Every structure is written in C-alpha cells, then in structure tokens.
Amino acid sequence: METLKLLFLSLALALTAASNAATARSIPDHIHPLRPQLGTSAGRRIPGLNCLSWRLAVEADNIQDWTVVPKECENYVGNYMLGLQYRIDSKFVTGSAYLYAKNLTLGKDGKDVWVFDIDDTSLSNLPYYAQPDTAFGAKPYNDTTFTVWEKQAKAPALPATLWLYKRLLRLGFKIVFLTGRSETFRAVTVQNLHKVGYTKWEKLILKSAEEKAEGLHALQYKSRERTNLVKAGYRILGNIGDQWSDVLGDNVGSRTFKLPNPMFYIA
Ligand SMILES: *[C@@H]1O[C@H](CO)[C@@H](O)[C@H](O)[C@H]1NC(C)=O
Ligand SMILES: *[C@@H]1O[C@H](CO)[C@@H](O)[C@H](O)[C@H]1NC(C)=O
Ligand SMILES: [Mg+2]
C-alpha cells in the first residue's frame, strides 16, 4: 500500500510538473492542449530533445555497444543524473519490483533469491561519474581512475535499491549480489556495502581471476553464475541491474528489473 502510494505520488508529481511546463510555454488556448508541444514543427528547435530520444533508445536497448555519451548530450545526461528525474525513475523501478515481490509466496527452504547487481544498482558511482574528466560518460572510460575510486569504498547506496533490498529481506528473500567486479576487490566491496547499509546476503559473487582471463562478456559471465545458482537449487524470483547484460541471457529470473543508466554500456 505504502509503495502504491509512493508510485502514485511520483506519477502525480510528474504530471503536475508537465502541466506547469505546458502552461509556462503559453500554448494559445484555442488550440487543443494535446497538440505536440515540443519539436521542430513550430519552427523552433528544442535543445535536449534529441538527447531524450537517445536516452530512450539506450534504456530500451535499441542502441548497443556505444562507448561514450554523445558530446551534445553531456549536459543533458548530467542534469538527468543529478536531478529529480533519475531518482523518480529509479524509485519507479524498485517500487514496481516490490509490488511484484510482496505478491509472491516463498518456499520454506530458504532458496528463493533475488539477484542484485552492484555498480550503479546497489552502489552508486555517480560521485565518480560527475567529475569533469568523466563527464557523466561523455569522456571515455578510464580503468585506472575507476579502480582508484572503487578501492576507496566510498560509493553511496542508490537509495531506491537500498529501500528494495531492506523490504525483500523482510519478505524473506535471500539476497545474491552478482557483480563484474574482480574477486581481488572483495574486501573493499564488502566494506563499501556494509558502510551504506547492505549488511546481509546469501552470496556475493565476484569475477574470479580465471573468469577474468577467459574474457567473458558480462552477459556470459552473469548467465553462467546464475546457472550455477539454479543448479545449486536456488530459485531466482527477481533480478535487478542497471545494464541489459544484467537481465538478459540464461536463468535471468522470473522477473527482471532494469534501472536507468544513460552513462555507459556494458555488453
Ligand atoms: C498478484 O497476484 C495476483 C494473483 O496471482 C495477480 O492476479 C496479480 O496480477 C499480482 N499482482 C502483481 C503486481 O504482480
Ligand atoms: C586515465 O587517467 C590517468 C590518470 O588521470 C591518466 O594518466 C591516463 O592517461 C588516463 N588513461 C586514458 C586511457 O585516458
Ligand atoms: Mg551495474
């Protein structure tokens, strides 16, 4: 109920904001209010409109294997990530996940699991990506600087995901963290998770040195690890991540939830 209210409140806020914006642009009132209000049809170019299309294509997985945010969308992505919309979008995802989860009847054997990705799902690397030399993904990925950031173990929790995590625990789910982070980062990852409120889990699966050497794509690696979970008798009822490679492949789970992330693409 609480979540439903939250969802409707978010929706109401979004709708109010939209109608205020429309009023502010003073659409002549003899024209039907549903006429297109944005675009080039009125002879005006609206900055950021193409970036909105770009982000939609990213989130729908219609464009793949892109390496950097288009230069002209750097500010757009920055505004999105630091603004209210990213938070509302994330809450909408985890709110929907909770509505699904609380409706399930779990087994009594403790084998019902929910898979969580870590980076930009459970933990937010936004403080790193907001730096000028990263520019919300408009600058190429730099493994050296990202590793330095990771080792500092100071990533905050993504609030919407922490909220879902706590509620899933209360419902009796077992939590499995499945991350492309290297096994050598286990200690800093545990430290970071604990620090921000993720204190309990069934498994924390990181990429072993052998898996790293195999050079598997995230999708293959995560598929394999989820298959191992299923072979071990776990039932994956839910799975949440910020990349399509978190939620596609084998044994993805009964339902998957994709958080927004317009800053980078991991195949
Ligand atoms: C909850 O379960 C009922 C009965 O199985 C189903 O009809 C309904 O769609 C479910 N709701 C959600 C949000 O999954
Ligand atoms: C990554 O960042 C480091 C430290 O700022 C810099 O020395 C290096 O040239 C960068 N690497 C690339 C590929 O840009
Ligand atoms: Mg991730």
Put the structure in a nutshell:
The chain is built from eleven helices and five strands. The chain has helices at residues 2-24, 49-59, 74-82, 84-101, 126-129, 143-151, 159-171, 186-196, 209-214, 218-231, 244-247; strands at 112-116, 174-182, 203-207, 235-241, 255-258.
Task: Describe the protein in words.
It is built from eleven helices and five strands, in the order H-H-H-H-E-H-H-H-E-H-E-H-H-E-H-E. Strand 2, helix 8 and strand 3 (203-207) form a beta-alpha-beta unit. The chain has 267 residues and is an alpha/beta fold. The protein has one domain (2-9, 46-258): HAD superfamily/HAD-like (Rossmann fold, 3-Layer(aba) Sandwich), CATH 3.40.50.1000. Bound molecules: 2-acetamido-2-deoxy-beta-D-glucopyranose (2 copies) and magnesium ion. Residues 142, 144-145 line the site of one 2-acetamido-2-deoxy-beta-D-glucopyranose. One 2-acetamido-2-deoxy-beta-D-glucopyranose (NAG) is lined by residues 142, 144-145. May function as somatic storage protein during early seedling development. GO terms for molecular function: acid phosphatase activity; nutrient reservoir activity.
Order of helices and strands: HHHHEHHHEHEHHEHE
Label the CATH architecture.
3-Layer(aba) Sandwich
Beta content: 5-15%
Quaternary state of the chains: single chain
Helical fraction: 40-55%
Largest sheet: 5 strands, parallel
> Which class of secondary structure composition applies to the elements?
alpha/beta
> Structurally, how many domains make up the residues?
1
Number of strands: 5
How would the global form be characterised?
globular
Poorly predicted residue ranges: 11-23
Distance between the termini: 37 Å
